[in-house]
Amino acid sequence: MAVSTKLRGLLMRQLRAPSHLNFINFRTLSPSAQEASRVVTQEFSDHNYESLQVTSTQKHVLHVQINRPDKRNAMNKAFWREMVECFGKIAKDPDCRAVVISGAGKMFTSGIDLMDMASDLLQPQGDDVARISWYLRDFISQYQKTFSVLEKCPKPVIAAIHGGCIGGGVDLISACDIRYCAQDAFFQIKEVDVGLAADVGTLQRLPKVIGNQSLVNELAFTARKMMADEALESGLVSRVFPDKDVMLDAAFALAGEISSKSPVAVQGTKINLVYSRDHSVDDSLDYIATWNMSMLQTQDIIKSVQAAMEKKDLKSVTFSKL
């Protein structure tokens, strides 16, 4: 009983301890997280794509780049297909615990590649209205999966945005868990300017991200640009950095910090946060109770408490792959 009481007390002190993530940039993070962000970049042969580049800059963290800088990272047919494949693999990768997604070159993304997508959009398959409509509905549903995979991936996804984040880019970042941006970033729901309503996630997720329906309506009806400072003030992003390099350093440091935690705890937290967003408080409490009836039996809790009892740095704890 005495040992049990001591363990409980140590665990409660750990839970009540203040977070040290109130940083302005990555230099105020723990030394181990800073060091992790400086590991040499490694590419992966099983992530071979036309529109994406997947690398690892540190243990347990993957960096996914939209890699069409000469086309302003416009989203072509390959992109819509490869994002599903890429994050499907990441979701099942036991070595990956966090992801940073960014854009190569001068901007995050200019949105859909209209030239590449013109045939599918303007000349849909089908002999009559019914068949064309059936084809278009399936087409839209398939493209919605491109960004839903970010939300369904149990690994936290951090969007690091610089320059323009236009059209489909807003759909993409709305499905991410954390958003950082550089001072030169701007956000634009561009779809009304090309004669359509956004249909792959922005209108459904953005109101819940920023919690201001009036502002979402304004942005969606007018296609005006939202600059970095307004994005921070509205809650679309959690931090703004002077430039792309500083932002990426901070994003990698944050990913390293997250990846040092128990993957059972982090991935369970993400799954329950997403569930709670779309369900009532009572349903969500029932869901987490059912979830934790098994997850509380993890060895990760014992390892963490033991490290605390022995006054070891919790970052020294090695958690099994998940």
What does this structure look like?
The protein is α/β, with parallel strands linked by helices. Helices cover 50% and strands 15% of the residues. The protein has 13 helices and ten strands. The strands form two sheets. It has a seven-stranded mixed sheet, sandwiched between helices. Strands 6-8-9 form a three-stranded mixed sheet. Strand 1 and strand 2 (52-58) form a beta hairpin.
* Gyration radius over CA: 21 Å
Span from first to last CA? 32 Å
Main sheet makeup: 7 strands, mixed
Mean pLDDT: 88
Shape: globular
Outline the low-pLDDT stretches: 14-28, 30-40
Main β-sheet, spatial strand arrangement: 1-2-3-4-5-7-10
What fraction of the residues are assigned to beta strands by DSSP? 5-15%
* Count of alpha and pi helical runs: 13
Helix content: 40-55%
Give the beta-strand count.
10
From N to C, what is the helix and strand string? HHEEEHEHHEEHEEHHEHEHHHH
Please state the structural category: alpha/beta
